[in-house]
TrEMBL record:
Belongs to the mTERF family. GO terms for biological process: mitochondrial ribosome assembly; mitochondrial transcription; regulation of DNA-templated transcription. It comes from the Eukaryota. This is Transcription termination factor 3, mitochondrial. GO terms for cellular component: mitochondrion. GO terms for molecular function: nucleic acid binding. It holds the Pfam family mTERF. Its main location: mitochondrion. It comes from Zophobas morio.
């Protein structure tokens, strides 16, 4: 294209471009390259023109010459109430109630919320409400510490939730225990609590009195994750072999068991039932042994076995109950149950 353009141009036409007199030379060079098989020597090409040449890769083992002082590991945002306590009347009053403010510092949502509250306007009425239920100062501190967002709940709704329990024939003592042991209870709506109580009554065939007794004994179980409880029910019934009636007996005696990890429960059960040969009929009478860790039972069982003092038959002398086996400190077990010494027990543990 360039050669054709040059040939058609006259001297007159190229007049304005006289300063570029090297055009003819360029045309000759182009013609020479096109008519020859000459290969351009890559050594004549400058580094800036060589697009295929990659810069040498640096090794992680080579010393770093760049300034990386600004690089630091990611730290989650943190908060410290200490800078606000002297100036905040609200924080001072919460401290008097026994609230451990540092427990809130890990939750990014709590500090900003608490700091914008006025104790007299936003908190005092809740303190009066909870005090009327029978909570003491130390109970108030624990409840607020565990459930700081209770101040977001409408006071009328809180009263409705208490009235619901009274309507369901929970006594004042039961209600007080529920609120004490489960600070999150009042944050659940009446509809949610009603569904949860209905689930336990139906799943375990409980009477009204049994539902109230279970709720007062372990209120956290009622608001616990339902799917977790269902999984433990399956493990206890299908994998361990307990009947529905026995499972009812277990939940009334040891409700905590249904909140534990299913693998840990099953591991403990397998050792008691299969290694120690304890029948289901005996386990169901003292299901709290299933909340004990398997290795603790194994240690004590094998120590008694070494001493020749294994006796779990109630009809024979020197009977040792499962509760006695798992209860108390190692020192108490070694001296009072095994009739040995803590030094002998510790020496035995080193051989396991």
């Amino acid at each position: 294209m360039l050669r054709r353009l040059i040939k058609t141009c006259t001297v007159r036409t190229l007049g304005p471009f006289r300063p570029l007199s090297s055009v003819q030379k360029i045309e000759n060079k182009i013609s020479t390259v096109e008519n020859s098989s000459e290969i351009i020597d890559p050594r004549l090409v400058s580094n800036s023109d060589n697009l295929n040449e990659n810069p040498p890769e640096s090794s992680v083992l080579q010393p770093c010459k760049e300034d990386i002082s600004y690089v630091a590991p990611y730290l989650r945002p943190s908060f410290n109430f200490a800078a606000y306590v002297n100036k905040s009347h609200t924080l001072q009053q919460l401290l008097k109630l026994g609230v451990r403010l540092y427990k809130w510092e890990k939750n990014q949502e709590v500090p900003p919320y608490i700091l914008q509250l006025d104790f007299d306007k936003d908190i005092k009425s809740y303190i009066i409400f909870l005090t009327d239920l029978g909570l003491q100062t130390e109970d108030l501190g624990k409840l607020i510490e565990k459930n700081p967002f209770i101040f977001k709940e409408d006071l009328e709704n809180l009263q409705v939730r208490i009235n619901y329990l009274k309507y369901k024939k929970f006594t004042d003592e039961m209600i007080l225990r529920i609120v004490q042991d489960n600070p999150m209870w009042l944050s659940f709506s009446t509809q949610d609590i009603d569904k949860k109580l209905g689930f336990f009554q139906k799943s375990f065939s409980l009477t009204g009195n049994e539902v109230r007794s279970l709720t007062a004994r372990k209120p956290r179980l009622i608001t616990y994750d339902i799917e977790h409880i269902k999984l433990n029910m399956f493990v206890i019934k299908e994998e361990m072999g307990f009947t529905p009636e026995e499972m009812k007996q277990i939940v009334l005696q040891t409700p905590k068991l249904f909140m534990n990890n299913q693998h840990r429960i099953l591991k403990t059960f397998d050792y008691i039932h299969k290694e120690m040969n304890i029948p289901l009929e005996t386990i169901v009478k003292m299901p709290q042994v299933l909340t004990c860790r398997e290795f603790r039972i194994k240690q004590r069982h094998q120590f008694l076995q070494k001493l020749g003092k294994l006796q779990f038959d109630t009809k024979k002398p020197n009977y040792i109950s499962l509760i006695t086996l798992v209860s108390g400190s190692d020192a108490h077990f070694a001296t009072e149950v095994a009739g040995s010494s803590i030094h002998a027990f510790n020496a035995f543990l080193k051989t396991m």
